[in-house]
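Please fill in the sequence for the structure shown.

STRUCTURE ENCODING:
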């Protein structure tokens, strides 16, 4: 009986943590910022270069830390079937993919333009806002190391520079 009480208390605590933090996450207003460039071929080349760099150095980091919410490859944890928690997690994942879906490499899907996505990723990583704290409580392996952050930010800055040069 004590084990059931412990599981119930842990589940309730998790639910409260998720609910308390839910309202504050993903509240950024996004404007579409199209990438204007010279010839279409330049843009295609730039996207190809940025995507190749992404696949080589950044995608493995995002697979570890971001794909559970920002892709169609979500690995739902055991507690995701608990009523209340289930709806909260599914809502979080749906909202995350609406903002940025990394399923099909760069450029990512979602409601933003590629340059906007790069800037948002840079800002979120630089500010330590992703992955969210409430996710890392249970998934500590998803936390970005300083090396991970450096690799991501270098890719973001180099990619923005490539797009600027293509204009």
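FILLED IN BY: designer on duty
SEQUENCE:
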């Amino acid at each position: 009986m004590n084990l059931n009480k412990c599981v119930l208390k842990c589940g309730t605590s998790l639910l409260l943590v998720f609910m308390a933090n839910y309202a504050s996450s993903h509240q950024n207003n996004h404007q579409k910022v199209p990438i204007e460039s010279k010839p279409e071929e330049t843009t295609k080349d730039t996207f190809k270069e940025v995507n190749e760099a992404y696949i080589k150095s950044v995608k493995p980091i995002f697979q570890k830390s971001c794909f559970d919410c920002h892709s169609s490859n979500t690995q739902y944890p055991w507690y995701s079937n608990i009523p209340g928690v289930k709806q909260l997690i599914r809502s979080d994942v749906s909202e995350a993919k609406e903002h940025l879906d990394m399923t099909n490499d760069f450029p990512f899907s979602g409601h933003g333009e590629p340059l906007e996505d790069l800037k948002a990723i840079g800002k979120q990583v630089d500010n330590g806002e992703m992955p969210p704290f409430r996710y890392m409580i249970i998934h500590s392996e998803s936390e970005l190391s300083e090396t991970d952050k450096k690799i991501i930010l270098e890719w973001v800055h180099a990619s923005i520079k490539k797009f600027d040069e293509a204009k």
